[in-house]
Amino acid sequence: MSMKRKAVQPLSSVTAPKKSKVTLESFFSPQVPLPKKSSDGPTEPSHAALSSEQIRVLHMVIDEGKSVFFTGAAGTGKSLLLRAIIRALRKKFSKTKDAISITASTGMAASNVGGMTIHSWGAVTPNCNDINLMIKCIKTCRPALQRWKKTKVLIIDEGLL
Questions:
Q1: Is 132 helix (H, G, I), strand (E, B) or coil?
Q2: I want to staple 43 with a disulfide (CB 3.0 to 4.6 A). Which of 35, 110, 143, 159 is the partner?
Q3: What does the sequence similarity comment in the record state about its family (predicted)?
Q4: What is the DSSP letter of 73?
Q5: Rounded distance, CA 116 to CA 153, Å?
């Protein structure tokens, strides 16, 4: 039995098919300037690619003071939008200490957004159904009571449905 060798063309002579040029401007979503908190003092601009729908939600929160609930599948930009909202709120309330509170329903979610659990923030017990007992707990926990009084915007990430 004899084996024949087939001639193989060297890689240097192989050319890729011609493709049309794609520019960065056509690839990325519109850029929205957002304030970025700097450790040196003043805020510096940053950019996040937000969709028109996300920009509308951001406008509702920042400019209109609306309470919003947004949801979506994985990878749809919920975290990007939340970070944009937090940055814009920090800029808006930069002179008001403790005006923004960032919370989440679980410890893991709270650590992801740089906040604390809603139960810890508000000094409430998850399984307590007695509203009078909850109010008493809040009033006796001075740090939580101050948070309730000073907070102008409460963000709850990953709210349990």
A1: helix
A2: 35
A3: Belongs to the helicase family.
A4: S
A5: 14
